[in-house]
Amino acid sequence: MPREFFWSPTKGPKTTPKTMPMTTGKLRIRQVRSGIGHPQVQKATLEALGLKHHQDEVVHQDSPSLRGQIKRVRHLLEVTAVTE
Fold first, then answer.
1. 43-83: per-residue pLDDT in tens?
2. Hey, which CATH number is domain 29-81, 3.40.190.10, 3.40.50.1000, 3.30.1390.20, 3.40.50.1820?
3. Percentage of the chain surpassing pLDDT 90?
4. pTM, 2 dp
């Protein structure tokens, strides 16, 4: 029997920051929350981004597909633009 959905006001951020405009540069993606307790799809997205554990950081070239992945797990990530 599937688990019932239980909403907790203390889980996750109260708001998510506005999305940054598309750039031609790179984005630094940092995992600030664990994937434990989240759906398998979200865990797979974190793995596809190259994030293996809490506090891990990766740098990727900005693209629409990357933005879609970030949007899916935005409550677990912190994204900043890389200045070279």
1. 999 999 999 999 999 999 999 999 999 999 999 999 999 98
2. 3.30.1390.20
3. 60
4. 0.74
In angstroms, the CA 24 to CA 66 distance is 13
Helix (H) or strand (E) holding 61: strand 57-61
Please tell me what DSSP assigns to residue 74: T
69 Cβ partners below 8 Å, 6+ apart? 45, 48, 49
| Residue 84 neighbours by CB under 8 Å, 6+ apart | 25, 26
Give the CA distances from residue 17 to residues 13, 36, 78, 84, in Å, rounded to whole numbers and listed in that order: 10, 23, 9, 23
